[in-house]
Design goal:
The chain is mainly α and about 60 residues long. It is about 85% helix and about 0% strand.
Length: about 60
């Protein structure tokens, strides 16, 4: 699984700039938190909502600059 993720990251680096790839890989934390909340019934409190919002807003800023 790790080798596949690494190969996907290298492939993405070949297609686009590193800032987009790094931001996309950081978004995996938000996706993991959402899956944990939905599938494993973990808490998704205020701090996670704020953190996820900050990460997504940073990704949007990178995409538009």
């Amino acid at each position: 699984m790790m080798a596949t993720a690494y190969a996907a990251a290298l492939g993405a680096l070949a297609l686009t700039s590193a800032s987009y790839v790094v931001a996309g890989r950081g978004l995996s934390v938000v996706i993991g938190a959402l899956f944990g909340s939905l599938l494993l019934k973990e808490g998704f409190g205020t701090s996670r909502v704020v953190g996820a919002g900050l990460m997504v807003s940073g990704l949007v800023l990178i995409a538009f600059t």
